[in-house]
UniProtKB/TrEMBL annotation:
It comes from the Eukaryota. It comes from Immersiella caudata. Keywords: Arabinose catabolism, Carbohydrate metabolism, Metal-binding, NAD, Oxidoreductase, Zinc. Residues 406-497 are annotated as: Disordered. This is L-arabinitol 4-dehydrogenase. Belongs to the zinc-containing alcohol dehydrogenase family. Residues 406-489 have a biased composition (Basic and acidic residues).
Length: 497
């Protein structure tokens, strides 16, 4: 039985969040499991709801728990569940379709009109202590995939779905517009599918620097020139001949979408994943004359989560590289601010029952290969960073195993866990000033509403209304870094899923 906290991070209305202790959910059917949420990533859509209170026709009318990129540990199983047991570590697929409509029965449950998707009004999200879900939407993580990686399976599954929609095959060239988390993951999946040239395009050089160490073979800084000229530049840069076999828009920006159609080769494929303005000027003649196959891509469907997990388990995609930091649950609001400011690629929030966040992050960090970062890591300032001198030890037990014990679920390998505990204590004492962190946690448990309503947030709201796509129409070479407010969440500016 679940005995921990069910503290939840609740959005009341735009710029108004609070921590609320909610009742622990109970299984609604014997095919469900109850999961203690260990880690949750922040998606641009979460930030968009926090800032604007709506995305398209999804409007936050009642307080809603945020978050949908999560992994957790099974604490209870319904009597009809055969595939999971208490103690299993799982990635949570956060949208539950009706299973009966034509789309569900036709194998496209992501298009179910009755979809109940976490943190999409009116449905609560996963930034909570416990989450109940149908067992078949909880994917057991292999031993070599950590719970922190598990939280990144959701955005990776978005990338898998996009690349599947594009039907990328070995030897192909792929251009991905946008180097936010979705674009980066699309590029990485395209490489894993055998694409030999993967060109990442963005308007921020730092993001491209990161992309080159992640999935991209080439990077192009989009200029303030016509979409046709940007397309010619991309083709020339990567020696794409008559154009790219596949183009993917993961920016939602109008000039980028236009450049997609000019970059793709005759008979190539174009997939729209980014969601910006509802209506744009689109080069329809080029699409028609080139006989381009155009597809949309929405969330993920059959087999996408499974494949995403396999790609991580097989070492094909190192999702840990995307993580700039892990913060305790009490610092959720601050984490949202960092994402909004474009200061991080991904930040993970530990569940309220997660006790050892600092050492968990330290452990994960030591396994990371240092790559150029698009942004300043914030974790050192927030939770303390582990010394990077230590070599990663592959045989070391995963820190997540400790969490199982903390949640009274299942005994981890006792010997290994003990060693880790001792190590974690040392790290805390020497490197992370545990007392300071504790004090911060206590403070953060009482969120101050007035702090949220900063001028910065208000300004952001106003600016977000002005689509940045206009900028690319100015006929000038673009060299300067865009302002912070043009970054991360702006891609969601015109709407999302
Ligand atoms: N289809 C889906 O199921 C799905 C799921 C999740 C997110 N999304 C959408 O995908 C998009 C990307 O998501 P994200 O989380 O990576 O967002 P993000 O905002 O972090 O990334 C968007 C990137 O596009 C870049 N960009 C902006 N204008 C550009 C231009 N003219 N040319 C090239 N790059 C440009 C930005 O600098 C940014 O790096 C968003 O529009 C989001 O709403 C779609
Ligand atoms: O990753 C999937 C998307 O972020 C979701 O559709 C989100 O927008 C909530 O509806």
């Amino acid at each position: 039985m679940a005995t921990g906290s069910n503290l939840s991070f609740v959005l009341n209305k735009p710029d108004d969040v609070e921590f609320k202790e909610k009742p622990v959910p109970t299984l609604k059917s014997q095919r469900e499991v109850l999961v203690a949420v260990n880690y949750t990533g922040i998606c641009g859509s979460d930030v968009h709801y926090w800032v604007h209170g709506s995305i398209g026709h999804f409007i936050v009318k009642e307080p809603m728990v945020l978050g949908h990129e999560s992994a957790g540990t099974v604490v209870e199983v319904g009597s009809e569940v055969k595939t999971l047991k208490v103690g299993d570590r799982v990635a949570l697929e956060p949208g539950y379709p009706c299973r009966h409509c034509a789309n569900c029965l036709g194998g496209h449950y992501n298009l179910c009109p009755e979809m109940a998707f976490a943190a999409t009004p009116p449905y609560d999200g996963t930034l909570t202590g416990y989450w109940n879900a149908p067992a078949d939407f909880c994917y057991k993580l292999p031993d070599n995939v950590s719970l922190q990686e598990g939280a990144l399976i959701e955005p990776l599954a978005v990338g898998v779905h996009v690349v599947r929609q594009a039907q990328v095959s070995p030897g192909q060239s792929v251009v991905v517009m946008g180097a936010g988390p979705v674009g980066l993951l699309c590029a990485a999946v395209a490489r894993a599918f055998g694409a030999t040239k993967v060109v990442q395009v963005d308007i921020i050089q730092g993001k491209l620097d990161f992309a080159l160490g992640f999935g991209a073979t080439h990077a192009y800084l989009s200029k303030r020139v016509s979409p046709e000229e940007n397309a010619r530049n991309i083709i020339e840069l990567a020696d794409l001949g008559a154009g790219a076999d596949v183009v993917i828009d993961a920016s939602g920006a109008e000039p980028s979408i236009q450049a997609c159609v000019h970059t793709v080769r005759v008979g190539g494929s174009y997939v729209q994943a980014g969601m910006g303005k509802d209506n744009i000027t689109f080069p329809i003649a080029a699409l028609c004359i080139k006989e381009v196959t155009a597809r949309g891509s929405f969330r993920y469907g059959s087999g996408d989560y499974k494949l995403a997990i396999e790609l991580v388990a097989a070492g094909k995609i190192d999702v840990k590289k995307l993580v700039d930091g892990v913060v305790p649950f009490s610092q959720a609001e601050d984490a949202f601010k960092k994402v909004k400011e474009g200061k991080v690629i991904k930040i993970l929030i530990a569940g309220p029952n997660e006790k050892d966040v600092v050492s968990t992050f330290a452990e994960e960090k030591t396994e990371k290969v240092e790559e150029p970062k698009a942004v300043e890591p914030i974790v050192a300032a927030q939770v303390g960073e582990a010394p990077k001198t230590e070599e990663p030890k592959a045989e070391e037990p995963k820190v997540e195993e400790l969490k199982v014990e903390e949640l009274n679920i299942e005994e981890p390998k006792a010997e290994e866990a003990k060693t880790e505990e001792v190590k974690a204590e040392e790290l805390k004492a020497e490197e992370v000033k545990a007392e300071e962190v504790k004090t911060e946690q206590v403070k953060a448990e009482e969120p101050k509403a007035e702090e949220v309503k900063t001028e910065e947030v208000k300004t952001e709201e106003v600016k977000a209304e002005e689509p940045k796509v206009e900028e690319a129409k100015v006929e000038e070479p673009r060299v300067e870094e865009p302002k912070p407010e043009e970054k991360s969440t702006h891609g969601h500016g015109g709407g999302c899923c």
